[in-house]
């Protein structure tokens, strides 16, 4: 089975802190994604990557950056956390040339910024 | 740009009753369509998907969905719900041209409540 692991399930940070959210997948998938989930807004795409060192902006990239130094690992970075970034963050992956684009999700990282 | 609308934010159903969750999409070509379920505190699990062929798709946990191109809909159904079906349900659409590299567009979700 595909396994997408998000290292931190729950984090509490202070405004202005730098925050790293880590995601690792074990199925050799080329594509990786970071979504943000908020009540009433569903899932919104922050950034995605289709190859090592490649990154593309999603729908809401402001205030975020990403890093993909290895194929299996995709990190989301909040350079200076703000309270409006309190949210659930979901990492997902999919294989290259996926016929359907099905995504495989991690269990999520719930971030609270005080 | 593609989009997904789930008109119902909350739905309450009695245990044992039938269920239909609505999903409408906007996409220029033949869409790839998905239903995911999210239990409290968990990630998203795929229930079923449609990308070609038979418009009635069977999924896990006794769910099915029907693709209706004329109505731009992909409604999720289950003949008899169980208390364990209480969760958040997301409909999503993918691009048939992107090969999966650009992700999926999700609806805002429907929260399903099961009454005993």
Describe the structure.
The complex is a heterodimer of chains A (114) and B (116). Chain A is mainly beta and 114 residues long. Chain A is built from no helices and eleven strands. In chain A, strands 2, 4, 5, 6, 9, 10 and 11 form a seven-stranded mixed β-sheet that branches. In chain A, strands 1-3-8-7 form a four-stranded antiparallel β-sheet, with no helix packed on it. With 116 residues, chain B is mainly β. Helix content of chain B is 0%, strand content 50%. Chain B contains no helices and twelve strands. In chain B, strands 2, 5, 6, 10, 11 and 12 form a six-stranded mixed β-sheet that branches. A four-stranded antiparallel β-sheet of chain B has the order 3-9-8-7, with no helix packed on it. In chain B, strands 1-4 form a two-stranded antiparallel sheet. In chain B, strand 8 and strand 9 form a beta hairpin. The radius of gyration of chain B is 14 Å and the shape is globular. The mean pLDDT of chain B is 91. Chains A and B meet through strand 4, strand 5 and strand 9 of A and strand 5, strand 6 and strand 11 of B.
Would you identify the regions of chain A where 5 or more consecutive residues have pLDDT less than 50? none
Radius of gyration of chain B: 14 Å
Rounded mean pLDDT score of chain B: 91
Mean pLDDT across residues of chain A: 93
Radius of gyration of chain A: 13 Å
The poorly predicted ranges of chain B are none
Query: What's the tally of helices of chain A?
Result: 0
Q: Which band does the percent of strand residues of chain A land in?
A: over 45%
Approximate helicity band of chain A: under 10%
Terminal CA distance of chain A reads: 37 Å
Please report the total strand number of chain B as a whole number.
12
Greatest interface and its participating residue counts: A-B, 31 and 28 residues
Note the run of SSEs of chain B as H and E: EEEEEEEEEEEE
* Largest sheet features of chain B: 6 strands, mixed
Residue share in helices of chain B? under 10%
User: Oligomerization state of this entry?
Assistant: heterodimer
């Amino acid at each position: 089975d595909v396994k997408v692991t998000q290292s931190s399930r729950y984090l509490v940070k202070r405004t202005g802190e730098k925050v790293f959210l880590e995601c690792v997948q074990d199925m050799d998938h080329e594509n990786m994604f970071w979504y943000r989930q908020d009540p009433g807004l569903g899932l919104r795409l922050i950034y995605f990557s289709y190859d090592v060192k490649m990154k593309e902006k999603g729908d809401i990239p402001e205030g975020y950056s990403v890093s993909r130094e290895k194929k299996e690992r995709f990190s989301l970075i909040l350079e200076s956390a703000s309270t409006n970034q309190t949210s659930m963050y979901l990492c997902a992956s999919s294989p290259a040339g996926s016929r359907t684009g099905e995504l495989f999700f991690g269990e999520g990282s719930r971030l609270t910024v005080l | 740009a593609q989009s997904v609308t789930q008109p119902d934010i909350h739905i309450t159903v009695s245990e044992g009753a039938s269920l239909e969750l609505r999903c409408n999409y906007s996409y220029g070509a033949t869409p790839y369509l998905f239903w995911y379920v999210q239990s409290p505190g968990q990630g998203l699990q795929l229930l079923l998907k449609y990308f070609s062929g038979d418009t009635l798709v069977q999924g896990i946990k006794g769910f099915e969905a029907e693709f209706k191109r004329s109505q731009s809909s992909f409604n999720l159904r289950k003949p008899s719900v169980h208390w364990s079906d209480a969760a958040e349900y997301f409909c999503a659409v993918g691009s048939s041209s992107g090969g999966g590299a650009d992700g999926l567009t999700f609806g805002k979700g429907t929260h399903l409540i099961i009454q005993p």
